[in-house]
From TrEMBL:
This is Putative epoxide hydrolase. It comes from the Eukaryota. Keywords: Hydrolase. One of its GO terms (molecular function) is hydrolase activity. PANTHER family: HAD FAMILY PHOSPHATASE, HYDROLASE, PUTATIVE (AFU_ORTHOLOGUE AFUA_1G12880)-RELATED. Coiled coil: none annotated. InterPro entries: ACAD10-like, HAD-like_sf, HAD_sf, PGP-like_dom2. It comes from Diplodia seriata.
């Protein structure tokens, strides 16, 4: 038996794929951050506040945008973001 009609159209490849990984494809990182803070005696909320305070040019934001690789330089810059309590709202008063 032969097919009738025009040949099937060639399917084009997608130009991009978007993923919302945190909390969708894997467990949200917020619980892991909270667990880490508690296990290491870090004030609850410190890590997330430091990440937010460093925005939009912080190490975390740059790695999320794919501007820098997840390497030793990233971790050094991220450590600087985390070590800047004056940048974290409400933390300067607690020191």
């Amino acid at each position: 038996m032969t097919a009738t009609g025009p040949p099937p159209a060639k399917q084009s490849r997608p130009k991009a794929l978007l993923f919302d990984i945190g909390g969708v494809c894997v467990v949200s990182p917020f619980q892991a951050i909270l667990d880490y803070e508690r296990a290491h005696g870090i004030p609850v909320g410190w890590v997330n506040a430091a990440i937010a305070a460093a925005a939009p040019a912080g190490a975390w934001q740059r790695v999320e945008r794919g501007e820098v690789p997840l390497d030793d330089a990233f971790f050094a810059a991220f450590a600087e973001d985390l070590a800047a309590p004056e940048e974290v709202p409400g933390e300067k008063a607690r020191l």
